[in-house]
Write a structure and sequence with these properties.
2 copies of one chain form a homodimer.
Chain A (H helix, E strand, L loop, with lengths): L1 H7 L4 E3 L2 E3 L5 E2 L2 E2 L4 E2 L4 E2 L3 H19 L3 H17 L1 H12 L3 H24 L6 E3 L13 E7 L3 E4 L13 H9 L3 E4 L5 H17 L7 E4 L3 H10 L5 E5 L2 H12 L7 E4 L5 E4 L1 H20 L11 E5 L2 H15 L4 E2 L3 H17 L1 E5 L8 E2 L2 E6 H6 L11 E7 L2 H10 L3 E7 L5 H12 L2 E6 L38 E7 L20 E3 L2 E3 L2
Parallel strand pairs in A: 7-24, 9-10, 9-12, 10-11, 12-13, 14-15, 14-21, 15-20, 19-20, 21-22
Antiparallel strand pairs in A: 1-2, 3-6, 4-5, 7-8, 8-23, 16-18, 17-19, 24-25
InterPro entries (chains A, B): Ald_DH/histidinol_DH, Ald_DH_C, Ald_DH_N, Aldehyde_DH_dom, Aldehyde_DH_Superfamily, ALDH_KGSADH
Keywords (chains A, B): Oxidoreductase
GO molecular function (chains A, B): 2,5-dioxovalerate dehydrogenase (NADP+) activity
Chain lengths: 530, 530
């Protein structure tokens, strides 16, 4: 299968519909399960490639943003269909490049096409337009009120940085790309070196959909390169108007700084770092401590712990309930098999992170060892709240199956730990009915710390829906006012424009008289569909 | 009247309800019409004052954000009532400190109280909550969908920087304060040195309303100080979570940089610099060139040209129509009386800006001279499109009654000028029915440059309503995705939080079962009020 795929893959970038061979460093996909490099060779692009892609995106923008919601909805659906058409090939390559199980990758393909179709639905529903009409009041004293209308328009070409850990759903046709394309923004993706072949397959699917849909070729480009070099060139190109990123805190903050230092600063939506605290309340520990301990390790070790929402922190009040939880967790983690991580680099970083924690906290247990350097060995640590509150280092994200249990003296100390946390993507509470009062005191603290609060579940698994928030205060993201998953992600790539006294013949449909598109609109302050 | 006022004013800051005498530089209000300093003396605060105010705001935040929409609506109305109760005193002091006409200041009081009441209405209408509910799908395969809900919450304490040119509507109780308080954020205002007495009167009105409403005293504070010192301390205080600013490009970009360099970066909404291009199309010039020329100068010289939306640039195709426009404008500007500017500093900057333009463009006419150094003398310049496109300097904002006419060879060159513009608050088109096609070609270009596009009017005068956008691409603002005027300004101080599987007893009303507050909510993707 791999041999056949190598024949199909060209190892080229795709810039505005055309294959382009890079002139920079050679890279290859790497199969962490087999410990072997994959064909073909890919090469990084250079500043010329960035400029070509950015110029094409800027040229495509006026045409692309002027497409109707229906046209863009059909385009997103065409991408989904094109991805499904190469599903078997795509899944095989993504499994090989990521070392992730086939079932997981198969699910991720479904998630990716589901996201594209969700945004098709968002486009057809039409509220994304943000249509508002304040009707003229010609007789108002002392001054008449003019006719003023408002709608959202696309920001411009968007640079998307693929994540390592979701080779499909947060990658070439992932949530950032889908939401930016939905908004009417051309997209330039910087592929992640961890899955170049997967990236090429998906980029070809998008490119085919661009052509099928009669859209300008510059609507989409795929580049290979490092974040430090090609990535910064992309973010600082004056034609790029917004950035989507999922990755490390170091990488995200570097892009944020580069974007802020531009002559014209632009927004960067960087999803970066989160340790996803889980609070275990007394009633929950008493009634199901051992079950929670086992389920916790299931969530922790899933996908070798390589989730942004991995539960990296457990907080509970000391006592027999917590002891029972820890006993079960110790047993489960000790039996957790070593599993391949996405790349040798990520595996090394994980080992270093665990090493650091070993010096700062008490080891509870390690998972099974492996002779492979690319495999991650699960790790569970414990500390007390005083030491946790005294050391910012204990809040550093260790990307992989490592977690830290913080033992608190009482509920007040648990609240102090909650208040001492950095910003998070998620905060979880396990609570029984008897814990409701305690949970009610905790909830307002957690609202200020996290983008999503969940009860009696585990944070891994982010539902793609209308109410999802995959975001949160810094350093979870660089912009807590948004979400990178779910319907509201489209809002990141829009801005409002007001139209005052604009001739009826020139008004876009969204804010035209008679509501030709049947949108929900705010007319004189009231929502109406008429 | 001024003597009586001096007796009432204390010259103190108000920090969390308590008067505090500053320890820094002495300042006084200055009456530019009389050329005389006003009593009493005010003194700048220091870092201790910043810390006291920030600590009080942070302490007030949990209580204040937990108030209901109705409670905050009544609080905003109480501020408006308190301001009206001191209306006569306030108007007299604001006229004295600004040199602006009484009718203008009286109107601005109405605008300020109107803004407060608009946000009371926004709160009661309730869509600001952004309520979304995705119902659980327990039988979904392969995995059930949990119950997920979303609402917006307040960001935290907000620092507001008053503008010089609207001593009421963009000052202590102005749009930034009103929208931040509406969102549930405590506010710390840095007063503008140009109107310290006006600031004290309004701050006392807000402080009284805080007490009347039973809110924590830290909900509001007023500080005096420079932007460079106290302002930066405020923006870099870790308890401040967002910033509203109206002022110069230099001041705004300094605050943006300071906020970006924080360990936890925060959003800054800086409204800064705009020259508000006005495009005169052929039909409009032919049918009403002279009237347009006269009306243009009326808009240009209103309030000594001290509006963010002052028409600083006229763009038209050369010909007899433009000549007639220029003739009328020349006549009108020549007859424009010199008028006091807000401060001697602003008058000096204006004179310097006009001096710079004199070297780079051709003088059409100056307004009447004045012996007073605080008076601004109107100025009208002209250049051709080639020179305009070649010099970024000609796009620099000259704050005051100065404008530049750009003569284009044809419609294509006019489009090139539009494309060469920096970001703007507004773009205006004057067009007749015969110009519709030309206007239709221009409109998409202007959408990418400005927050508001208006036809057959003048950009001065910003309606406070639901559809207004007072914003636009950099450098008009630091964040084009928002507006600082109108109902949507509240969105700047909110962020979404998702609630997954949260026990019904703990859900906030906005996303509770049964919709107790009767809100418009998005349930499974569809808007509904049931």
């Amino acid at each position: 299968m791999t041999a056949m795929l190598a024949n199909q893959l060209t190892g080229q970038m795709i810039i505005a519909g055309s294959p382009v061979t890079g002139s920079g460093a050679e890279i290859r996909g790497f199969d962490p399960a087999a410990g072997a490099a994959l064909e073909p060779v890919y090469r990084h692009g250079d500043s010329t490639d960035v400029q070509t892609a950015a110029a094409a995106a800027a040229a495509a923008f006026p045409t692309y943003r002027a497409t109707t919601s229906e046209q863009r909805a059909q385009f997103l659906e065409a991408i989904a269909t094109r991805i499904e058409a190469v599903g078997e090939t795509l899944i095989a390559r993504a499994v090989a490049e990521s070392g992730l199980p086939q079932a997981r990758i198969t699910g991720e393909v479904g998630r990716t096409t589901g996201q594209l179709r969700l945004f098709a639905g968002v486009l057809r529903e039409g509220s994304w337009n943000g249509a508002r009409i304040d009707t003229a009041l010609p007789d108002r004293a002392p001054l008449p009120r003019p006719d003023i209308r408002q709608r959202n328009i696309a920001l411009g070409p968007v640079a998307v940085f693929s994540a390592s850990n979701f080779p499909l759903a947060f990658s070439v046709a992932g949530g950032d790309t889908a939401s930016a394309l939905a908004a009417g923004c051309p997209v330039i993706v910087k592929a992640h070196d961890a899955h170049p072949g997967t990236s090429e397959i998906v980029a070809r699917a998008i490119t085919a959909a661009v052509a099928d849909s009669g859209l300008p070729a510059g609507t989409f480009s795929l580049l290979y390169g490092t974040g430090e070099q090609l990535g910064i060139q992309l973010v600082t190109d004056p034609r790029i108007k917004a950035v989507g990123f999922t990755g490390s805190r170091t990488g995200g903050t570097a892009l944020v700084a580069a974007a802020a230092a531009r002559p014209e600063p632009i927004p960067v939506y960087a999803e970066m770092s989160s340790i996803n605290p889980v609070f275990l309340l007394d009633g929950a520990l008493q009634s199901r401590g051992p079950e929670l301990g086992k389920a916790f390790i299931g969530s922790l070790t899933m996908g070798s712990g390589q989730f942004c929402t991995n539960p990296g922190l457990i907080i509970a009040v000391d006592g027999p309930g917590l002891d029972a939880f820890v006993d079960a967790a110790r047993e489960a983690v000790s039996a957790a098999p070593a599993a391949p991580m996405l790349t040798p680099h990520i595996a090394r970083n994980y080992a270093n992170g665990v090493e650091s924690l070993s010096g700062a906290a008490e080891l509870v247990a390690r998972g099974e060892r492996s002779s492979s350097e690319t495999c991650g060995q699960a790790a569970l640590f414990s500390t007390d709240a005083d030491r946790f509150l005294a050391s910012q280092d204990l809040q550093a994200e260790v990307f992989g199956s490592s977690s830290l249990i913080v033992r608190c003296a009482d509920a007040d100390q648990m609240a102090a730990v909650a208040q001492g946390l950095e910003g998070q993507l998620t905060a979880t509470v396990h609570a029984e009915d008897t814990d409701l009062e305690a949970a009610g005191r905790l909830l307002p603290l957690l609202e200020l710390k996290a983008g999503r609060i969940l009860f009696n579940g585990w944070p891994t698994g982010v539902e793609v829906c209308h109410a999802m928030v995959h975001g949160g205060p810094f350093p979870a993201t660089s912009d807590s006012r948004t979400t990178s998953v779910g319907a509201r992600a489209i809002e990141r790539f829009l801005r409002p424009v007001a139209y005052q006294g604009v001739p009826k013949a020139l008004l876009p449909n969204a804010i035209a008289d008679g509501n030709p598109d049947g949108l929900w609109r705010r007319v004189d302050g009231q929502l109406t569909q008429s």
